[in-house]
Amino acid sequence: MKDMKKILVPVDGSKKSFDALNRALILAGFTHGEITCLHVIPHVEEGGPRTRRYDKIIESQANSILKKAEKYADKKNIKFRKKIARGSPGIETLKMIKNGKYDHIVMSTTGTGSASGDMIGSVSNFILHKSKIPVYLIK
What CA–CA distance (Å, rounded) separates 29 from 35? Predict the structure, then answer.
């Protein structure tokens, strides 16, 4: 398991994404690895003051989600990094995988999207098929 030093964990704030984070923290504990948590803010079309206000709200939510994730990692004494990206969750996650030289990705099968418990979500399905590194899906 020595090749599990850098683990990427996308989180969207859902309980399932935090379940995946907990599993990743266990793996990182075994391997003395580090976790990078990624939260992707969907692209917001430029507009007037309402769009800017909405953008500030979702950015604040993203920071809250990552702060919560960081507390999970601190409790387990795991090295932790956090990253916010903007755009398509699947594409931004793949960019992080490529640019960050990660060993593994751990993510939930579903998140805040509309997939039911018996289905795999569109983002996790996309990552599973496009990733060049091992993907651990947590149900």
Answer: 10
pLDDT of res. 40: 95
One-letter amino acid for residue 64 of the chain? S
Q: Which two tokens stand for residue 37?
A: 């948590």
Please, what are the domains in the chain?
6-138 (3.40.50.620)
Closest CA to 14 of 32, 35, 39, 31: 39
Phi, psi of 138 (to 5 degrees): -105, 120
3-state secondary structure 100-115: HCCCEEEEECCCCCCC
CA distance 123 to 127: 6
Rounded CA-CA distance 25/30 in Å is 9
DSSP 11-63: --SSHHHHHHHHHHHHHHHHHT-EEEEEEEEPP----SHHHHHHHHHHHHHHH
Band the pLDDT of 102: cuts 50, 70, 90.
very high
pLDDT of residue 113 exceeding 80: no
